[in-house]
Every structure is written in structure tokens, then in C-alpha cells.
Specification:
MreC_beta-barrel_core, six-stranded antiparallel β-barrel, Thrombin, subunit H, MreC, single chain, 36% helix, elongated, 278 residues, transmembrane
Length: 278
């Protein structure tokens, strides 16, 4: 306290000068219309800029919550879209899917906490496990396309086999040509895949969509796998050499949806029984 008093005493002339300057500035602003308007315009401009910075900072800190809310909303939209598509598939007018079949797919949103793209066999870790109803074999998709399939689970986490895996095949359909094939990663570029087993006599064009087919029990049909990037034909081969641009960008994967096919076990058991009887 003694030092503060000594400082004020020593700087009394400077402090008096500052107070007089502030007083003069106050009188100028309040007695002159021009300077008053200039002051308030300038102060408002700086205040608006500070508010803009403050709002931008607050919005940035809330991005995680906003992304989580959007992921939950997309989960609900995916479920509604799948029910509509499965309830009225492309079939003769006399056919009508029963409600259990139309509602067989359910979705659980999860956050990606680890993800690799640089290996021949890549995996993804998500923050949902058996306590959230996740189990091995479930499909995983992103807001833009196919991601992979659940491999291992514990109570709170799951490891997903990425489609960027040397042994992962996705039963896929070339939409425009209405042709079924298999999408497989060649281990080179994490943004590209190969589409196999498409006859060279089928028309294929750059930009054609490739989606998950109806002939798998893991993914809902119609989930985008990618779009045709290039088409070629190898000599003495009966199939196109097709390269796809992947629909999912694995380099910035944040939220995914784990897909449960509630009729998967029933379907696979029946098909296995048929195979055993052959």
C-alpha cells in the first residue's frame, strides 16, 4: 500500500494530465455534434467488430455440439428413408413388403476416435460398444457412403474393418447399367476403389453411381459406394476395368452410423441351412 501511494505521488503530474485529457475529450464529444457523431460511429464499428469476433469464437467452441446434433438428425433421416425405400421397392405393383421387412434396418450414431488409411488393411475405432447394442457383423456407413463392418466390440468401443482393407468386398450395383459387381480396394489410393465383375458389354460412363446392392445383409441397399472415375478394358478380358471415386472421405471421417439388420441372423441361418443340405 505504501508503494502504491508512493507511485501515485511520483506520477501525480502524469495522472492529472490524463484526467484532464479525458475531461476535455468528454466535453468535446458532448458539445460538438460532428465529433459526437464521429465518436459514436467509430465506437459502434469497433463494438460490432468485437461482437463478431466474440460470436465467431463462441460458434467455434460449439461446433462439436452442432456436429453431434446434425449426426443425430441424419440418423433419424436415414432410418425414415430406409423405411420408405424398403416399404415400396422397385417391384410389380402387386408386391408389398411387410412392415417387419421394411423396418429391419436401424441406425446408431457413433464418433470416430481412431482411423487409419495408410496400411494395406485399415481399421476404424468408434466410441460405441456392446452397451449401446453394437455387435460384430453390423455395417457402418457415413453421411456420404459406405464405411465398413464392425469386427470387434467391448462395452464402450468397437473396431470396424474399413472398406480400405485388402479382403473387404462390397456387393455393389452400377445404377445406370443395372449390373451387380463387387467393390474392392486395391491398396493404393484411399480415395479410389475398383469395381469388379462388370461385363465389358454393359455401358459404363464416367460419373455413373455405384451403390450397395440388394444382395447383402450388412448394408441397406442404395447406399452410395462411389462414382465411376475411369473405365477401361484389359486385353482378352470379359470385364471392364473400372475405377471409382469413393463417396466417403476417410481422411476427415468424424461421425458414422452403425447399421443393424434385425433380420440378418434369420436370413443367414436359413441360407446356411440350405447350403448344408446341398
Amino acid at each position: 500500500m505504501e508503494q502504491l501511494g508512493y507511485f501515485i505521488l511520483r506520477s501525480r503530474n502524469f495522472i492529472l494530465f490524463v484526467l484532464l485529457e479525458v475531461l476535455c475529450f468528454y466535453f468535446i464529444i458532448n458539445t460538438n455534434n460532428y465529433w459526437s457523431a464521429s465518436f459514436f460511429n467509430t465506437s459502434n464499428a469497433y463494438a460490432a467488430r468485437m461482437l463478431a469476433w466474440s460470436n465467431a469464437a463462441r460458434e467455434y467452441t460449439e461446433l462439436h455440439r452442432v456436429n453431434a446434433d446434425l449426426a443425430l438428425e441424419n440418423e433419424q433421416l436415414h432410418a425414415q428413408l430406409t423405411r420408405l425405400q424398403q416399404g415400396a421397392p422397385a417391384a410389380p405393383a402387386a408386391y408389398k413388403a411387410d412392415s417387419i421387412f421394411a423396418n429391419r434396418f436401424t441406425y446408431t450414431v457413433a464418433k470416430v476416435i481412431n482411423n487409419t488409411t495408410q496400411f494395406a488393411n485399415n481399421y476404424i475405432t468408434i466410441d460405441k460398444g456392446t452397451d449401446d447394442g453394437i455387435r460384430p457383423g453390423m455395417g457402418v456407413i457415413s453421411p456420404t457412403g459406405v464405411v465398413g463392418k464392425v469386427k470387434l466390440c467391448n462395452r464402450h468401443f468397437s473396431v470396424v474393418t474399413s472398406i480400405l482393407h485388402s479382403e473387404f468386398l462390397v456387393s455393389s450395383k452400377l445404377v445406370k447399367a443395372d449390373e451387380i459387381g463387387s467393390a474392392k480396394w486395391d491398396g493404393v489410393d484411399p480415395h479410389r476403389m475398383k469395381l469388379l465383375d462388370i461385363s465389358r458389354y454393359k455401358p459404363v460412363n464416367k460419373g455413373d453411381s455405384v451403390v450397395s446392392s440388394e444382395f447383402n445383409s450388412t448394408f441397406p441397399p442404395g447406399i452410395l459406394v462411389g462414382r465411376v472415375r475411369g473405365v477401361g478394358v484389359q486385353p482378352n478380358q470379359t470385364f471392364h476395368d473400372i475405377t471409382l471415386d469413393l463417396a466417403t472421405n476417410f481422411s476427415n471421417l468424424s461421425f458414422v452410423y452403425v447399421v443393424e439388420n434385425r433380420l440378418q441372423n434369420e436370413q443367414e441361418q436359413l441360407e446356411k441351412q440350405v447350403e448344408n443340405e446341398k
